[in-house]
């Protein structure tokens, strides 16, 4: 027996948090009875579960890593007809991205139809490291980069300590390439951190998520995560 919201999330319909909201709104039935109480346990193999009138069919979980090109939206669909990350995944499953990358940011993004897994990775308390390569305008001093390591204030709240490494500087062009690793996921966080010290980002790419990298992938290419990688991410998230 498993909690109803967990079963809904694992079916790939939505995250556990959104499943809880659907339950509270009376949009979920178990054996034709409306359930509005969180924590109700069900047998996903025996109970008849419907979400907004649609029978729940548990899909086999799938997990992908995509090298997102610049200009692609981190969503499962877009009402304006723009390219979205799911366009690059060859599956008929209802997958969606774990977290997001801004349209103007390229690089590594994970996708899945496993809502519980996605919820674990996105939970702010799990602190999975994410590494970015940023090309910034200007030549920041070492002490200015130290500010990023210690944390800068965004919307009145200080960012968690980051790891920062200068890759190279081009004095002629007045640009610097910097590697930065953060554990949070605030809106446009890396760009805003560099803005906070006076060096706006020109280009940004996410290269690593936990132990997952873009090795072997070109922009627009994807691959399935191995069972070992899925387990490592899961273990990382819950420790």
Account of the 3D structure:
It contains six helices and 17 strands. With 239 residues, the protein is of the alpha+beta class. The protein folds into three domains: 54 residues, Structural Genomics Hypothetical 15.5 Kd Protein In mrcA-pckA Intergenic Region, Chain A (Roll), CATH 3.10.290; 90 residues, Pseudouridine synthase I, catalytic domain, N-terminal subdomain (Alpha-Beta Plaits); 80 residues, Alpha-Beta Plaits (2-Layer Sandwich). A hairpin with a 2-residue loop joins strand 5 and strand 6. The radius of gyration is 20 Å and the shape is elongated. This is Pseudouridine synthase. One of its GO terms (molecular function) is rRNA pseudouridine synthase activity. It is an enzyme of class 5 (isomerase).
Layout of secondary structure:
Layout: E1 2-3, H1 4-10, H2 16-24, E2 28-30, E3 33-34, E4 41-42, E5 49-51, E6 54-55, E7 63-68, E8 96-97, E9 106-112, H3 115-122, E10 130-137, H4 142-150, E11 153-154, E12 157-158, E13 163-170, E14 175-182, H5 189-196, E15 201-209, E16 212-213, E17 222-224, H6 227-238
Parallel strand pairs: 9-15
Antiparallel strand pairs: 1-4, 2-3, 2-5, 5-6, 7-9, 7-17, 8-9, 10-14, 10-15, 11-12, 13-14, 15-16
Family: Belongs to the pseudouridine synthase RsuA family.
GO molecular function: RNA binding; rRNA pseudouridine synthase activity
Keywords: Isomerase, RNA-binding
Highest-level CATH class of the largest domain = Alpha Beta
CATH superfamily of the largest domain: Pseudouridine synthase I, catalytic domain, N-terminal subdomain
Q: What amount of the residues lies in strands?
A: 25-35%
As for the number of domains, it is 3
DSSP, total strands: 17
| Major sheet | 9 strands, mixed
């Amino acid at each position: 027996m498993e909690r109803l919201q967990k079963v809904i999330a694992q079916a790939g319909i939505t995250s556990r948090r959104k499943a809880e909201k659907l339950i509270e709104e009376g949009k979920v039935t178990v054996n034709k009875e409306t359930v509005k109480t969180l924590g109700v346990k069900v047998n996903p193999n025996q109970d008849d579960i419907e979400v907004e009138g649609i029978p729940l069919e548990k899909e086999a979980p799938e997990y992908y890593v995509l090298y997102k090109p610049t200009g692609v939206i981190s969503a499962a669909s877009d009402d304006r007809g723009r390219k979205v990350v799911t366009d690059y995944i060859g599956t008929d499953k209802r997958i969606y991205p774990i977290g997001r990358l801004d349209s103007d940011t390229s690089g590594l993004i994970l996708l899945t139809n496993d809502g519980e897994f996605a919820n674990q990775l996105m939970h702010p308390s799990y602190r999975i490291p994410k590494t970015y390569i940023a090309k910034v305008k200007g030549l920041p001093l070492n002490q200015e980069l130290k500010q990023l390591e210690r944390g800068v204030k965004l919307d009145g709240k200080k960012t968690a300590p980051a790891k920062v490494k200068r890759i190279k500087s081009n004095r002629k062009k007045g640009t610097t390439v910097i590697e930065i690793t953060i554990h949070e996921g605030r809106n446009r966080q890396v760009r805003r951190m560099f803005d906070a010290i006076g060096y706006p980002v020109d280009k940004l790419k996410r290269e690593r998520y936990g132990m997952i990298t873009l090795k072997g992938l070109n922009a627009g290419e994807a691959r399935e995560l191995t069972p070992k990688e899925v387990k490592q991410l899961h273990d990382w998230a819950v420790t």
